[in-house]
Amino acid sequence: MKPKAQIVDLPVYQPGKPIEEVKKELGLDRVIKLASNENPYGCSPLAREAITAELETLSLYPDGSAAELTAALAEHLNVASPQIIFGCGSDEIIALIIRAFLVPGDETIMADQTFSVYKTNAEIEGAVSIEVPLVDGKHDLQGMLDAITDKTKIIWVCNPNNPTGTIVSETELVQFLDSVPEHIMVVLDEAYFEYVTDASYPNSIPLMGRYPNLVILRTFSKIYGLAALRIGYGVAQEEVISLINRVREPFNTGRLAQAAAKAALKDQAFVAECRKRNEEGIKYIQGELDRLGLSYFPAHGNFIMIDVRRSGKDVFQSLLRKGIIVRPGFERYPNWIRVTVGSKEQNDAFIGALEQVIAEVSPVV
């Protein structure tokens, strides 16, 4: 059985290690996972109630068009329902965009380092990924513009960027969009949109009126706390969404996910409280990192990328033995780790463990 030649050497996506696996491997009773940027405060009580009510309908297929959720989200975003598409997480929307618009030999531009799913899906379709190095952890927008050729079809801007947490401002984004040819799609991945408090951050939805080539991705996995249900969405011009829908599988989002997301939208007080606590957590962790003499990128999502000045993988393993799971293994940043901002208790435990590890693991010379 012969696979596509382009997938043979593709790396398999490595999610953060699960808590249960670490407990079993290391014989630990208490493990804190700060590796996958999950919401430490769970989800809205309204979402839990909606899930419970929906349990009576498990024998029925979900609404393939997610009509009720689409209408609720369209009202929340002040867009038309045909401008929205839902997926099994925003990851699926990424895959669908690439399936719909890229053919072998096409080029797609992204940052290096950024969310790996862009490149993986492009290569599955035989497209060529052009990676433009970050500058101080931030997108080099001019460098991305300079990389455009007559083969360029899609440009990806992860904002805040995963894993560095840096942002592109609205002024920077508008200048960039003004310079991108109209036939090239720009996908703005805003998975951490609701966490950002910086006033310069783009109000991106209204920009679609000026830039019909703009596609915006968001998710219910992060601040809404519905990661287990796998539901994200894309927003774009109706014509673009119609084309993406042509390659979408039927029933790609479940009944529980649709019901929970619809209920979660109603509880913006929960979102605001999570944003406030996350901001407090960022300030606390950054203050402690300053005390420890460690540098980090400005954090605008619910995670911080830290220069531990030691092998990130070694620090990861040492933290793991202390019951703290973080994320290492960034090709362009081998001496860095990414840590999710947790609850106050989790953040305290992380800093305590990190201080011990810094004393135990030798710096890279």
UniProtKB/TrEMBL annotation:
Checking Gene3D superfamilies in the record gives: Aspartate Aminotransferase, domain 1, Type I PLP-dependent aspartate aminotransferase-like (Major domain)
Q: Which reaction does it catalyse?
A: L-histidinol phosphate + 2-oxoglutarate = 3-(imidazol-4-yl)-2-oxopropyl phosphate + L-glutamate
Q: Which UniProt keywords apply?
A: Amino-acid biosynthesis, Aminotransferase, Histidine biosynthesis, Pyridoxal phosphate, Transferase
- EC number(s) of the enzyme? 2.6.1.9
- What superkingdom does the record give? Bacteria
Q: In which pathway does it act?
A: Amino-acid biosynthesis; L-histidine biosynthesis; L-histidine from 5-phospho-alpha-D-ribose 1-diphosphate: step 7/9
SUPFAM superfamilies with a match to the protein in the record:
PLP-dependent transferases (SSF53383)
Q: What class of enzyme is it?
A: transferase
Residues bearing PTM N6-(pyridoxal phosphate)lysine? 222
Q: Name the protein family.
A: Belongs to the class-II pyridoxal-phosphate-dependent aminotransferase family. Histidinol-phosphate aminotransferase subfamily.
**What's the protein called, per UniProt?**
Histidinol-phosphate aminotransferase
Q: State the organism's lineage.
A: Bacteria, Bacillati, Bacillota, Bacilli, Bacillales
